[in-house]
Each structure stands twice: as structure tokens, then as C-alpha cells.
Design brief:
acetylglutamate kinase activity (chains A, B, C, D, E, F), EC 2.7.2.8 (chains A, B, C, D, E, F), arginine biosynthesis (chains A, B, C, D, E, F), Acetylglutamate kinase (chains A, B, C, D, E, F), homohexamer, Carbamate kinase, 14 strands, globular
């Protein structure tokens, strides 16, 4: 006889069946950041998760930042960092360091995916002219090479996915002169998901999700219609650091992304649990026309 | 916190990753018969398993017989059945009944697959002229409409798979005059797997696998090179009902099938366990050039 | 010298030229039933005709019923048949018999086409989920597994035609649970022709066409605009058994079929005569925008 | 009732069925010349025949000469014509006239085909560099712009056929300097058929076929293997004007053409009779591996 | 060291870069006529220019007339020519001569292009039924086989360009009966450019461009918006022989051609200078939405 | 009149015609290094040259190193560098710096190409698993993360070129564990050219070419067959720093590259001069079967 353990394994796989069917050929943008980029074990698991999404027929794209590596190298170069309105003032040398660090982080991820047997192609927002930017001003002040996204040319992403590559993107864009600019990784992920009309945008970061009561971890909401999210913003329930994130999400949903997920990247295999089991992780914000499905 | 149960689920999925990669786009012929066709629960599970294989990127083909239904309808029609050399003497009326029963069983399977959200196309060996046969003689005796496969035209199977259908095949072939003949389902599965150079041919039947000692269920061998199988045949270890099955397997492996599996269809989700976990089910017979992988 | 006989043959072929050009690559749905299914000589001729249509570049599809075979097997199984509003009450066993008989009739047609050197693929309305049905009620009464067509998914038909197969269809559909239902073959042919925006739908049955005077065989009308047909219905000229047939035709024409033909299947090679000579057979009902062409 | 006349028409069409299947997608090169180019009625019939071949799925190519038109225009221009070894000495002005006349004849054929609803493209051997030639010398004597074919680039023919055009070719080639040369139309047809590995090369000219006794019209041979033809040449049975034609045929058959037909273009619809009925016209010379089929 | 001469060569090539990029894959119709067809040196240069346009990725099409060759052959045939409203009265024999001469001129161009290593296909307006015409009447008078273009079927042009051929077209069209008609080459070029929505239509003829003062060669305008051209026509600045040409241009621009160029074909390599340097040749008439670029 | 200057420009373009035709669709690998990477003016010119090659229909690929930037950043990080056998000992931190610097240099090139209107995609040898390496040992000594190329998977390059991207590659490869290794850029260019069977491999570096007399700059050889190069090596004429370069070339030519060019990157637009004029730059080494073409 086959023992119980194996039958349970089979059940887990069968449980995944409707999700595999539902997301077949669908574009999933994963914003990868936070602890999941630093902790080696979590990192390994995130890569495994994305590789599995790709192998079962989804079309995932990773968008990543540089985590704390950029600051580490800026320090190493002996530079002092100034912040304006929460944004790093980015002079020529700083943008060079950012480019270098992000490029290296990118290829580490590429190598990790390749060793799991899936083709990866790491690109910046400059390749194929994907992310066109203009200089961002903070209260009218020039803070250097920090860019706002003006347009997204998705051709290179479509071409790579068509050829069966998993695209891994880092958020350096360029202006009309070909100068490189740093872009906020959350914004880049959101702009890319919007331009691709992605089925889902998943933010992996160090929050548990949206709380009804900021002080109460047990008050995390599992699913919200975009209108409900807007109402919570208006009513002041959503506030603090979560506020800009949610505003960003609301915009992306209105522009065509079907479903955005704010996930706790500190939970092992959170992507898998979210995609393949009935265990919802964090908070999903969805379009009115979608049915909430964790209540099923 | 996410509880332990979910982390274990994630582990099961991750464990499947190398198998999903290994069989990507590979043709898997599943000979479906025995208890798994009769027991409604087992039947549902086999369909789920094959649908999952399809959804994660394999290219499964089901070949099925009629189980005990043919005999039931022959009885219903008030016919007496004669057997020669273990084969049913098949007159005009009997072949008509066989065609009718197999056609109906086929569409039931089609309906089951369709309701799980995967496209299925049920065909006989006559569609597209797939299975060409000639009359089989037993010791020179004409036993009616029982056929030996002369050639396999795989065009219709390739076309259907190309268009993303799961082909479900029943073993009625035709001779040059267009007359229908019954074919042994094991032989049909083996001929189709050979013609397609399938990656794997899985026999789902009511045996646990090949035993070293026919009396000892614990003596099932998990993996054999084709040469080893030949030796066991020569040495008389393999005998009885298993003998023709194994001879059939040896031939198919020599003609290009990579791996043949004799599986116990009475075990729930045996296909899934075999394909996605490190639990080998039954006996695999493999080509010399393949590495045995359960020992890893 | 070549004798007169051969020159006349050449003339016949040349006469076919404009018709061959006109229907090039056009979809022709042939509803096959009545005497032409029973008489072996007529049957052979219909198959020849359809094969010729295929070979000269048309895209024919055969939709067939089971003729009197279903009743014969229901009787054989010792069942009594009840009719409600002209429709057979179809219990579980009856639908099984219908499926079996239709499946077998289908493969006989497949074999006949294949032996003429053309690829055929026989499918039911369940394959590829082509015909989705819901239970039909007669005056509120449940008459079992008899279905009304809810939707037609033409993917499997397009795929087969694309791969150069002649599709042969039998009218068993399925509901959302995957249960099989019998469908009226006329309705199935009409629904398929409509969904494919077929160039022509030809009904082969045992009527000479639409008569102005039901008692007078010489009053058969050769061509009618759909508006004229509607008027004849309103005026009560068309009545009796012809009435539902014509109503069905009117609907299909309004939904995109260009031309419907009610043909006498008892005439040898009626399809060929209709398609390739200036001899109109039976009654054509056409859209306003089409020109009547037998008057040319 | 349908009268007998129509049933006979149907029989003629059905008789064509095996031939339509046999030549499906096959390349047929028709050398068009002789009376069939001059007599308006015969011309109209040849065009109808080729158009029908195209419409039922064959891939015909017409290769034509200029008939007596070239001589007429040379006379008109007041030039005297010299012949060496049966070939016209072709000075600069003569080749210009040949080009002009052939070009015009070509477009007349194009117009005739187009008005029957089939796309035609008329090209010379210079278009796409199809026919590369070198100067032909007769007993060492330069006879001007008369060319021997050095190579055939079939790209333009394949491209046109692929796009569903009927190619109509006239035999002007060019040398490496781009100078135009006249080519014997029989040679051009044979070289093109060879380069395309055509299924059949049909010569339409004013002969009844190959005679066993040159004096006896009733001694026309209907079918010869290429070896038999060689033997007849060796034995001196084939002689006179037929000799170079047959030598040409023998070479083309050895180089890959399957079947060459010497047909009497004076018989109305000779192409149709040859292709679609069991009435063989003229003499077929075939490869050993082909079965003679008029004897069937 | 590399001497100055080579660095200047490199500069010329680099200067061409933005133009090569701008016209990549764009359709350019070149109406070829005037001195550039007669002078052998100019002819060679025009061919080189068009071949270069093709090789660097543009999609040029040549449309040509017969220059003075038609008159020369009409004279040769001893015919008198009558003109009505500036148009040659074209009887049956004249249209035949026109067809012959144009066909020959066409193949000369084909040969010239082929010897430069680019594939050319020479076609008339009858091939593929490209130019459909109806008889032109001058003040109600029938002047024979002179046609007005009724419709342009661009399929053959698209097919040839798709297969990498340079199409070379001569302006003989046909009416519904298949009769050939002469068409004004300027009108044919304009109709073809319009039907293809060409990026540019370049007229190579013996004028320097549009003059503000007809008497002053230095008053040539280099660039005009279509509205400006209309105003110059209204104000009577453009008059005489230039008037119909400009009216023709205005119409084509309104129907979708982006830019029309009236170029002096007597200048060596005028096409190259126009396309690849900042030296504008002759007069460009452009759509409002285009930016004038020689002023850059 | 058009002045002389413009006619000379046209001549330069016409002179380029045979070269544009010859290299149409051909793969050209450009190893970019030396002064041409440092001098901003030369850099701009190289980019212009490669962009022009791309626009006129060649398929160029840039392979670049990091020039002196890597050393600069290693110094900045306060590391001492040890060399063994001329190779930098590359510890973990050094390989990280190399990756970062090369990644940044790469994206600068991408930006430069993009601003000229051509799509560029910058990749490392790790993307798509293109360059697989194993650790290089110098006299048995482990010098860290310096790799020898084991295999080249050209899929990502073919995919990018197919989609009209100009690939820009930097020579970081990975071993089976996914660890990054530095590769000599000359070796990477040569391995890539070999794997792609490139038409030409052009080395842009600070040498004038191969000299017969190392002391005499005027003794540069313009063209050598590979056998002649081997002889010069044997005879000791080629020696010093040129020796390994030439050995590398000889190997690549034997493995399928058609033609290798050692060019002086200090000459402005050396690529253009080499490809589009009859001015040969540096030394070409070619296969026996190629004709030397500067002597034409």
C-alpha cells in the first residue's frame, strides 16, 4: 500500500489544478524586494516559486530593486547621501553606482533562475527603450538622476516572453538624451503591469497586508474591491506608509491590471501559497468585475 | 503566521518542479484500463491526474479499452461468446457492439475532461486512418474482426495536440476495405507510443508491477533496464500473465519509447505520484541510455 | 479522332468551372439523413459527392443523425418508447443507446470517406465542448436527456478543417455537468452552419422541396428569398411537417448563413447536380443580398 | 424525376474524382504551342482547361512560344530571315522583336485567365533571373541571340504559386551581362519541369503522339516506360521530327519529372480528357517506378 | 594614417543614417520617364539608385512608360498617328504596338536590376488584374484603347515585395472583357502610390520642379504643403504643363500618399541625393501633418 | 545645377552598393575595445558605424570588455591586484566589481544605440545561459573567478536578432553552480562568432594590423589566407602580443567563421571604411575558399 503521506501529496497537487488552469498564459508581474531579497533562504524560495509559475504555464516577470546594496556601495565609495522628501539626491556618481549594483543583482537572479532549468533574460528599462523617463522634481527642486516614467514600450518584454524567457527587470530608465535615471521599483512594477494589462501584480514586501486597525495585526483584510479601497483611503483608515502604495494600486487597477496583491515576503513560499492553495496571503485589491474568490 | 500545513503544501509543489521541467512538452501515452475504469472514484482521480499533466505542459494521450462493458452488451444482445487462444471470436454483430460501446465510453471520458476545463477530442483508430490493420489469425484460424496493427498514421494525433487538445483514443482500426476491427488496447497504446516516440508509456492496470517472486508482493522491482528485463524473461523469473506484457514493453522500448511504466491503477492518483513525487509506483522499464532516477 | 462521348465529358467538367470558383474555400454544411442514409447505393453516392466537394476546394462538414438505427437498438434492448409532442422521452438507457448508435454510424461514414482517399475526423458535439445544451422541456414536462443548443464552440471544427480533415459530426451535446443529451440533427446542422457563417446549408432528406400546393409535386419552388419564405409561412402556404423546417431555415439565414437548400436525398448525386450543374435540385432559400442564380 | 442527362453529368464528375485526388498540389507544366495557339476556339478551351486544373487544386504552369507571330512581325519590319541548322539567326533587332511579340502574347494569355476568375502572373525567363543562358553555337557558328539554358532559378515560380498565381512563362533568358536571348520553348518547358521536379510535363502540339509506324496514325502508342522509349530510339522506330522531342523527354524523365505527355493540341479539351477521364490522349512516357494507369 | 578622402567618404555614409532609418520598410513609388530613360548613363544611374534604395531596406516600385519608343515603332509600322486633346488615338494595332514596346522596355529594366544582384519582377497592370480600366472619352469622343483607372488591386505588388522582389510596372490595364488599354504612366504611378498608401511618390522627369515664376529657373520651390500647392493653383501661379501634374499630386496626397516629389531626372543620381543627403532636389509637396525637413 | 560636392556624395553611396549586397543578413561580430572605448569621439563613431551596418541590413553583434574601468573601480575599493601569467587574480569581490562595471558600460552602449533609433538589448553571457564556463587554471594555479568557455548557447542571440534587436554582450559567464566568471573579451567574441558561424569577426583594437616586420608600420599585410597566417606563425614572423590573437583567429576560421579582421580602432569610422569602401583597414585573415577581394 501507498502510505497516507503520498495521498496527501497528491491532494495538494490536485488542489492546484483550478489555479493552474485559471492563470494559464496570464502575465504576472512580481515586484521583488524587502527581506525576501536579503535572506538567502527566502530568496531561494522566491526564485523556486517564480520558476514554478513559469513551468506550469504562467508568464511571470520579475521587477526588482537593489535593496540595501546601493547604500552599501555608496558608503564604500565614501559618498554622503542627502534625502529630499524621502528620495535620495542622485548625482552622476550615485546613478552610476545604482546602475552597477542593480545590474549585478539582476544577473545574480538570472543565474539563480537558469540553474533551475528555466531561461532568464535580465534587462534594464533602457534595453529596447522600455522605460522612458523625465526628471522628477520634488517641490520644484532638482534631485538629480531620479526619473518619472513617461512611457513604457513593452516590445522587448513581449519578444522575450514569446521566446520562452523569464524577463527580470531593474528600474533604470532613460530620458531623450540617453541619460540613465533611477526609478522607484514599485512604480516601475506598476507601470509595467499596467502597460502589459497584467492579470496580477504581486508586491513582495515586509508588510502583512492592509490592516483595518494599524495597531492590530489580526485586522488584515484579505480582499477588497478597488472602490472599497478608495473608500478606506477617504475615510482615513488606510494611512501612513501604506497610503502611497494603495494609491498606486488603485491607479494601476483602473488602468487595466486585474488584481494586485500586497504580500508578506517574509512568509516562505508566499507566492506559491497565494497562487496554488486556498490560503490567501496578505491583501488582494481587485476590479469590480472580478469575483472575490477566497470566500468560496 | 502561516501554519505548518501550508508550508508543507508549498514543499509538495516545489518537489514537483524538477519533474515538471523534465517532462515539459513530452508525449506521455496512458493506457487506461482495469479497476480504474470501473470504480467511479478512481476514474475521477485518473482524469484529474491526466488533466493536471496536460495543464502543467506535458502532452498526454489516453488510450482506453471498453472494460467489462463490451461483454455486458454482448450478453444483453443475447449472443454467446466463443474464445480462441484467449481472444474473443468477433463476428459482425460483435464488432458493431464493440464499436458502439467503445465510442460511448470514449465520449464519457471526453465529457469528464471537458468539465475540468481542458479541451478533449475523442477519436477511434479509424479517424484520419490512424490505425491500419489486417486480420489476425490464431493458429491459422479466422476469429473474425480482430486486427493486427500494420501501420500508425500519427497525423491526426499531432494535429490535435498542436491545437491544444487532449486526444482520447479507442482501439478500433480499419483494413484496406474500410472494415472495422477490434484491436487489443495494450497493443494499440504500445503502437501509438512507438510511432510517436513517446517519452513514456504508462500502463494503468490491476497489477502492482513486476515481481521477482510472483508469490511475494514485496518483491516488486521498481526499475529495470530493458536488458535486465530481457534477462529476467530468459531466466523464467517473469512468467504467466506478465510475460506477454513485458515482451510488448521490450519491443516498444527498442523501437524508440524512452520509458514504460507498469502501474497499479488501484492506487489513488498513481499517475501523479509517479510523475510528481519521488515515490515510484510499480515497475519502470527503461532504455540503457536513461539514468534510473528513483535511486537519486 | 476523339469521339463525341469524350467531348461531352469535357463539356460537363467545363460547365462546373464557375461553381468550383464560386465555392472555393467556402464552408458547406450538409445535413445527411433520410433514405440516403439507408440505401447503400445512395449512401455511397452521397459520400462520393461530399468527397468531391472537398477535393475541388470547398470545405464541407457532414452532420448526421442515426436514422432508424436508434429505434432498432432501443427495441433490441426491450425498451418501450414514449413520445411527447413528437419527441422521444429519453431516459438514461436511451441516451446511452443513442450515443452508441450515433458513434458507430459516425465511424462508418469516417471509414467510407477515408477509403476514398480523403482524411475524415468523426466527432460528437461533446468533443472540444462544441455543442453546449440545456434540457428541453415540452409544455413544461421533463422528457429526459433531450437538449436545446445553448452555444456552439467552433474551435474544433476550424482546427480540423485547417488541418485538411473533413469533419463528420453527430448531434450529442453536453450540459454544464458533462451529461450527454440528444439533439435534433436538423437543429444541430443549422446551429453549426450559423456559428460558422457557412456559405450553404444543404438538407438531404426525403422531400422534393417546398411546394406551393402541398398536393402537387410539380409545384416545387426552386428559389425563394427569405422574405418570400416568411410570407408563404404567414399566408399558410407552407404548413405541416415543412413548417418547422422552414422556420429553422429562416432563422439561420437571418443569423448569417448565405443560402439553405432543401434537397431530395433520394435523387442520385443530388449534391453534385446542385453544386456543379445548372440543374437546381429542390428549394433554395437565400438572403436578400444574394442573386438568384438558376434563372440566369 | 431528374432526367438521365443529369445523372450522366454526375457520373462524369465522379469519374474525375481519383484524378483530382492523385494530382492534388502537384506541379503540371503545360507547353502550349501549335494550332491551339492560333485557333481562337482551341485557345479558349486550353485556357479553360488550365484554369480548371488550377481550381481543383493542381499547380499548373504555362510555358508558351510566339507561334507564327514572331515571323509575321519580322516580315513587317522588312527583315530577311536566315536559318542555320533549323534555327533562326537572331540579330539585335530580331531578338527585340521576339521579346516584344512574346511579351504581348503572354499578356493576352494573362488577360484570358484573369477573366475566368483565376489570378495569373506573366513573366519572362529574365524575371527573378529565372533562366540563365549562354550563347548557343551551331557547328561553331555564332547565330546571335539564341541561348542554351545554363541554370533555372525556380524561386519566382515557387513564390507566385505560393501566393496562388498561375504563372505564364515565355522563353526569353539572359546571360551574365543581362543581354536577352531567345530560347526554344520546348527546351524551356522541359528545363522548368525538371527544375521543379514536376509531376507531369504536357506538350500540346500538332502531333497525335508517338507512332510505331510513322505512316500509320492508328499505331500511336498510349504509354511507354522511359526504357522502352530509349529502345525505340535505338531501334530507329522513333525518327524524324519526333526524335529530338523524345530525346528531350528521356532526359527530363531521368532528371526527375515523373511523367511526360505528348498530346494532340488540335483535339478540343485534350488536357481535360487526359487529366480527368480514362481516355488517354497521345503518348505518355513515364518513369519505371510509375505504374501505367490507362491499362487499369 | 588613413587619408582625408576616406574620412569624407565615411561622413557621407553617416550623413545617410537618419534617412535610412526614416524610410525603413517604406514604400517608394518611382515614376521613371523623360531623359533618364533615354540617356544610357542616366539610366544606369537611376537603376543603381533604386537598387540601393532596395538594398538599404526601402521598398521601391518602378512605374515606367515607353518614352519615344512607342512612336518609333508606330512609325516603323507605317501608321499615322492622330491626337485628340493631347492623347494619341489608339486603335487595335497601336495598342498592340504599345503593349509590345512597353513589355520589352520593362524586361530591359528587369535585366539591369538583376545584374546588380537584386531580384526584379516586371509586370503589366493586367497581371493579377492589378489595373482595371474603363474606356476614356475625350469630349465624348471614343479615342480607342486609352483607359481611365477604375480600381487598383495591390495584391500582386504586396506579394512580390513580401518575397523580396523589386516590382517594375508598365501601365497597360484591362477592362472587364480582358481587353488591353494604354494608361498614362503618371496616372498609373499616382494610382498605385495611392492604393499602397506609399510613403513617397517620386516623379523623375525633365523639369526642375515647381517655379514661382515660370520664366525664372532660380524660383524653384523646394517644399510645399498641399494647401499651399492648392493656393498656388488657385492664384494661377502654377499653370501650363505643370498644372495637371500638380492637380494629380494634390489628389494623391489627399488620398493617403505622404509626400510627392517632382524631381529633375536629368541630374545624375537625383534619387540618391534626394533620399540620402540634405540636398533637396526639385519640389516636394507634402501633407500638413508632415514636417518640412530640408529647412532643418 | 547640382554642384560637384553632391555628385561625389552620390558616388560614395553607389560605391557601397556591392558591399551592402554582399553582407545582407550576414552576422558580423564586432569586438569593441581599446582607445575606441575611451575616446568619446571615437566611441560615438563606432556606435554610428554599427548602427549603420544594422540599418542597411547586416546583423551586427557587439562584444565589449570594460577597458580600464574595472581597474579604476578595483582601486577605488582599495584592493590590491595580483597578476599570474598576465591574468588578474579574481577573488569574490573583484568578480563582483567586474560584473558591476561591465553591466554599466553595457547599458551606456545600449543607450547610445537606442538614441540613434535602433533597438538594442544588452546581455551578459549568463542571460539565457549563453556562455557556460569552467574555472581556468594557470600552471595548475587557481586564480579565482576567471573562466574558460565550455559551450555557447546561441538561442538568446538568435531570438534577439530575429526580433530586430542589436545584441550588445559583455563577457561574464557562469559555471554549473551559477557562479559568475570573468572571460577574456577577445575569447568571448571569437567563441560567439564561431558558434554563430559569423560572416565576419572584426577586432577593433589599438594595433594597425599584422606586420611582416614588427618594427615597420608600413609592412602591414592587408589580406592573408588562414594557411598563410599559419606559415607566418611557424616561421616566427608573427610573434609577441600578436601571437595569441592570431592563433585565436586561426582556430575560429577553422571552426566556421568566414573572415576575421584585425582593425585599428583609432582610425575614425574604421568599420565603415572597411565595410563600405575599397579601403581595406588593418589585416584580414580569410578561409581558403574565399576570394581575396581588395585586389579586385
Amino acid at each position: 500500500m501507498v502510505d497516507q503521506k503520498y495521498l496527501e501529496k497528491a491532494e495538494v497537487l490536485i488542489e492546484a489544478l483550478p489555479y493552474i488552469r485559471r492563470f494559464h498564459d496570464k502575465i504576472i508581474v512580481v515586484k521583488y524586494g524587502g527581506s525576501a531579497m536579503i535572506d538567502e533562504e527566502l530568496k531561494r524560495e522566491v526564485i523556486q516559486d517564480v520558476v514554478l509559475l513559469k513551468l506550469v504555464g504562467f508568464r511571470p516577470i520579475i521587477v526588482h530593486g537593489g535593496g540595501k546594496e546601493i547604500s552599501r556601495w555608496v558608503d564604500k565609495a565614501g559618498k554622503e547621501t542627502e534625502f529630499v522628501g524621502g528620495l535620495r539626491v542622485t548625482d552622476k556618481e550615485t546613478i552610476e553606482i545604482a546602475q552597477m549594483v542593480l545590474g549585478k543583482v539582476n544577473k545574480d537572479l538570472v543565474a539563480n533562475v537558469q540553474t533551475l532549468g528555466v531561461q532568464a533574460a535580465g534587462i534594464s528599462g533602457m534595453d529596447g527603450g522600455m522605460l522612458k523617463v523625465e526628471k522628477k522634481y520634488v517641490d520644484g527642486r532638482d534631485i538629480g538622476y531620479v526619473g518619472d516614467i513617461k512611457s513604457v514600450d513593452t516590445k522587448i518584454l513581449h519578444d522575450l516572453m514569446e521566446q520562452d524567457f523569464l524577463p527580470i527587470v531593474y528600474p533604470i530608465g532613460m530620458d531623450d538624451n540617453g541619460d540613465a535615471y533611477n526609478i522607484n521599483a514599485d512604480e516601475a512594477a506598476s507601470a509595467i503591469a499596467t502597460a502589459l494589462k497584467a492579470e496580477k501584480l504581486a508586491y513582495l514586501s515586509d508588510v502583512e497586508g492592509v490592516r483595518l486597525d494599524p495597531e492590530d495585526p489580526s485586522s488584515v483584510i484579505s480582499e477588497l474591491y478597488v472602490e472599497e479601497a478608495e473608500k478606506l483611503v477617504e475615510e482615513g483608515v488606510i494611512k501612513g506608509g501604506m497610503l502611497p502604495k494603495i494609491r498606486n494600486c488603485i491607479e494601476a487597477l483602473k488602468d487595466g491590471v486585474s488584481r494586485i496583491h500586497i504580500m508578506d515576503g517574509r512568509i516562505p513560499h508566499s507566492l506559491l501559497l497565494e497562487f496554488f492553495t486556498n490560503k490567501g496571503i496578505g491583501t488582494a485589491i481587485i476590479q469590480e468585475s472580478e469575483e472575490k474568490y477566497w470566500n468560496e
